[in-house]
Design goal:
With 114 residues, the protein is an alpha/beta fold. It has one domain (6-109): inorganic pyrophosphatase (n-terminal core) (Alpha-Beta Complex). Helices cover 29% and strands 18% of the residues. The protein has four helices and five strands; from the N terminus they run βαβαβαββα. The protein has a five-stranded parallel sheet with strand order 3-2-1-4-5. Strand 1, helix 1 and strand 2 form a beta-alpha-beta unit. Helix 1 (16-31) crosses helix 2. The longest helix is centred in the first third of the chain and has 16 residues, at 16-31. Bound molecules: manganese (II) ion. Manganese (II) ion (MN) is lined by residues 15, 17-18, 77.
């Protein structure tokens, strides 16, 4: 059976670090043989649009268009539920990566893994 897809994403309308983190972490997972892609909800901030254009980087997939119930999700640069798309089912989230995670980890994700 094939492994379910991992979507790396973050806040809706992500800022540059959220956008870059999603792209970079999805690339790392792919290089480690995982079925992973970056996908973003909403429209990235203008700084991110500038970087896409200046460095000729393909914009990640639109998460609203590709997310399905079998996907597993990794959230990057996201520490507050208020910025998360309501299309995200917490049960699908397998990991959250944020430099604030020890302090502000989304409480619906359960205890921090060591
Ligand atoms: Mn950020």
């Amino acid at each position: 059976m094939s492994q379910s897809r991992i979507i790396v994403t973050g806040y809706s309308n992500p800022d540059l670090d959220g956008t870059a983190s999603a792209i970079a972490y999805a690339e790392l997972l792919k290089k480690k043989g995982k079925n992973a892609i970056a996908a973003l909800f909403g429209t990235p901030h203008s700084e991110a649009q500038f970087v896409f254009k200046t460095f000729d980087i393909d914009k990640p997939a639109q998460a609203e268009n590709i997310l399905n119930q079998k996907d597993r999700l990794i959230l990057v640069d996201a520490s507050d539920l208020r910025g998360i798309s309501n299309l995200i089912d917490p049960k699908q989230v397998i990991k959250q990566i944020n430099f604030l995670m020890q302090k502000y980890r989304l409480n619906w994700l359960g205890p921090v893994q060591p």
